[in-house]
Amino acid sequence: MTSHELTTIGFDADDTLWQNEQFFRLTEKRFAGLLAEHGEADHVSARLLEAERRNLAVYGFGIKGFTLSMIETAIEVSGGRVPGAVVAEILAAGREMLSHPIEPLAHARETVEKLAGAYRLVLITKGDLFDQERKLAQSGLGDLFDAVEIVSDKSAATYARVFSRHGDGPGKSMMVGNSLKSDVVPAIEAGGWGVHVPHELTWVLEHVEAPTAAPRFRQIADLGQLPALIEGIVTAG
Questions:
Q1: End-to-end CA separation in angstroms for the chain
Q2: Angle between the N-to-C axes of helices 41-59 and 63-77, in degrees from 0 to 180, rounded to the nearest 10
Q3: Most buried one in 116, 120, 143, 229, CB count within 10 A?
Q4: Is the pLDDT of residue 112 over 70?
Q5: Average pLDDT of every residue of the chain
Q6: Residue 110: which region, alpha, beta or left (left: phi > 0; alpha: psi -120 to 50)?
């Protein structure tokens, strides 16, 4: 492989470049506390996960869908008797999540800065358009990317389309992210490289088996290791 055969690098955003899931976990704990008289925390959380799972196709990914799923769960577990004050608390919790300051992860800026210019960099994230745009703006990383794609879901077809639009096709591209299900497996299925950067709080609905047998699968401990990994892939060819 020559350096010209890897031209484009895609980055996930949430829990790859900045913290995200921890705010969902904290809000979920707060939510369970609001409904303590209707069930144990584990029971309430399990019902919430069920609601999120069935609502993904309707609300999509992100805080707004999460907030609606909390309200739906509150109605269910309370038998329709949830007080208006509790619903107001849930809505307030959702608004707080939508305004929480961005917390970049270790090595995010230095790594993106190091690769910018040498490769086409594309931010590929899913979720609510307004919220993702807000987080990118607050991160201060926006100017380092050649393109930004905020998508409803991530599939092999998504990566084939994005990397063809902003690069030289998936075969000359790499996707980097914390989710095996959304960032790594479909990018490899599209013909690209998939680099897994584990995050300790990755959402349970993003869990799948690592494609360890795939020739284009790699895993690193943190983003700081990415430039050396890319260099190794390039020079090995």
A1: 3
A2: 130
A3: 120
A4: yes
A5: 94
A6: alpha
Q: What is the DSSP string of 169-200?
A: -GGGEEEEES-IIIIIHHHHHTTSEEEE---T
Q: CB burial class (10 A; 0-12, 13-18, 19+) of residue 58?
A: exposed
pTM value surpassing 0.85: yes
Is the pLDDT assigned to residue 2 strictly greater than 50?
A: no
In contact, 139 and 15? CB cutoff 8 Å: no
Q: Using an 8 Å Cβ cutoff, are 194 and 214 in contact?
A: yes
Q: Spell out the residues 6+ positions from residue 201 whose beta carbon is closer than 8 angstroms to its own.
A: 15, 21, 22, 25
What are the distances in angstroms from CA 206 to CA 76, 87, 101, 114? Answer: 25, 28, 24, 29
pLDDT of residue 237: 64
CA count, 13 A, side-chain hemisphere, 160: 7
Q: How many helices (H) and strands (E) does the chain have?
A: 9, 6
According to DSSP H, which parts of 11-155 are helical? 21-34, 41-59, 63-77, 84-98, 108-115, 129-139
